[in-house]
């Protein structure tokens, strides 16, 4: 009997070896291969990103040299030339940068509160059957192409809903510079509102996933101490989900910054800029899409420079978001941030 006990571990080791466990020869071969494949995939992403930056910057470099980097970013005159060998026009991208920032800011301000509230409803309040239906609806809305949003916004939502609301808003708050008329229909505000509808599904989905993985034990402990549902959500769930909410906001902001077709249909397409939300303008992506096909070689170089500026704006915003998350994590002692 003792002999059988001593022989059992040996048989177990032999069985593990035959099955190719981590200690077997096959396991020792697969592990390095897997490691190098994963490393190659990560490196490939970095290489592609670096090549994109290098290529677009090299194409746009003559414009930066002629206008100056900050002169190009802050200039407000866009007068393309038609030269093939030199930069003969005047290129200032600030109206397009301003249009991109203002429409994206409007979209985030409008979309973030509903995204958080819908996520809370799906995870803490709604019955299970309704949760499945609403989750499927949100995911379906996220799959709608942007051109459909643009057509819907331009031909139905704007004339039937937004334009009457804008008229009321201008009559009530026209004295304030943000709502100074006239109301033209298309402009920064309608483009920002439609962008908010576009980014709402993806933000909602991410916030919902973040909230749903929060530890139930902490919530039950808060209930045991006499907290109400409102107190548990606002003082336990949402603070613990802060990093994920910021990540969802940045992802939605990234889509809003780069959105093209819907913004092109609704922003107005002018090269001016102003403080009024009823004003018309252009975003960086929409201006590139609207003018690239018929542009001269010199103008295409300037459009490449707008692409570089768009990448720079996106990168700066993401860096600021990471700094905010890190600061909040340190102040609250969140080691996971």
Provide a descriptive summary of the structure in words.
- With 337 residues, the chain is mainly alpha-helical.
- It has 13 helices and 2 strands, in the order αααββαααααααααα.
- The protein has helices at residues 2-19, 25-67, 69-74, 94-125, 128-142, 146-173, 188-212, 216-224, 229-240, 242-258, 261-266, 284-291, 297-332; strands at residues 78-79, 90-91.
- A two-stranded antiparallel sheet has the order 1-2.
- The longest helix has 43 residues, at 25-67.
- The radius of gyration is 27 Å and the shape is globular.
- Residues 1-6 and 11-20 have low confidence and may be disordered.
Brief synopsis:
Helices cover 76% and strands 1% of the residues. Helix 4 runs parallel beside helix 7, helix 6 packs across helix 7 and helix 12 packs antiparallel against helix 13.
**Structural class from helices and strands?**
mainly alpha
How many beta-strand elements?
A: 2
Query: Which percent range fits the helix content?
Result: over 70%
Tertiary shape:
globular
Strand content: under 5%
From the alpha carbons, calculate the radius of gyration and give it in angstroms. 27 Å
Low-confidence stretches: 1-6, 11-20
| Amino-to-carboxy terminus distance | 56 Å
Helix-strand pattern, N to C? HHHEEHHHHHHHHHH
Widest β-sheet, arrangement of strands: 1-2
Rounded mean pLDDT is 84
Separate helix tally = 13
Q: How many strands, what sense, and barrel or not for the largest sheet?
A: 2 strands, antiparallel
Indicate the topology.
Elements: H1 2-19, H2 25-67, H3 69-74, E1 78-79, E2 90-91, H4 94-125, H5 128-142, H6 146-173, H7 188-212, H8 216-224, H9 229-240, H10 242-258, H11 261-266, H12 284-291, H13 297-332
Antiparallel strand pairs: 1-2
Helix pairs in contact: 2-13, 4-7, 4-10, 5-7, 6-7, 7-10, 8-9, 10-13, 12-13
């Amino acid at each position: 009997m003792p002999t059988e006990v001593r022989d059992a571990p040996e048989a177990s080791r032999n069985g593990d070896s035959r099955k190719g466990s981590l200690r077997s020869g096959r396991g020792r071969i697969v592990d390095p291969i897997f490691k190098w494949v994963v490393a190659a995939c990560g490196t490939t992403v970095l290489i592609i990103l670096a090549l994109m930056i290098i290529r677009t910057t090299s194409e746009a470099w003559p414009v930066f040299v002629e206008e100056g980097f900050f002169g190009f970013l802050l200039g407000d005159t866009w007068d393309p030339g038609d030269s093939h060998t030199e930069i003969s026009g005047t290129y200032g991208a600030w109206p397009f940068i301003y249009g991109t920032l203002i429409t994206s800011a409007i979209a985030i301000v409008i979309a973030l509160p509903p995204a958080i509230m819908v996520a809370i409803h799906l995870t803490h309040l709604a019955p299970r059957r309704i949760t499945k239906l609403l989750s499927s609806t949100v995911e379906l809305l996220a799959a709608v192409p942007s051109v459909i949003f643009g057509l819907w916004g331009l031909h139905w939502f704007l004339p039937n809903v937004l334009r009457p609301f804008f008229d009321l808003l201008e009559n009530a708050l026209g004295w304030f510079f943000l709502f100074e008329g006239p109301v033209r229909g298309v402009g920064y505000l309608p483009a920002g509102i439609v962008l908010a509808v576009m980014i709402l599904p993806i933000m909602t989905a991410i916030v919902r996933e973040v909230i749903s993985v929060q530890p139930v034990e902490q919530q039950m402990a808060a209930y045991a101490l006499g907290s109400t549902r409102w107190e548990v959500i606002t003082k336990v769930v949402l603070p613990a989900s802060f990093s994920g909410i910021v990540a969802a906001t940045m992802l939605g902001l990234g889509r809003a910054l780069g959105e093209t077709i819907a913004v092109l249909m609704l922003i107005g397409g002018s090269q001016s800029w102003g403080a009024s939300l009823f004003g018309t303008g252009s975003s960086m992506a929409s201006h590139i899409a609207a003018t690239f096909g018929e542009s001269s070689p010199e103008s295409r170089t300037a459009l490449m420079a707008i692409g570089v500026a768009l990448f720079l704006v996106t990168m700066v915003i993401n860096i600021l978001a990471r700094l905010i998350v890190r600061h909040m994590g340190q102040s609250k002692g969140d080691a996971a941030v």
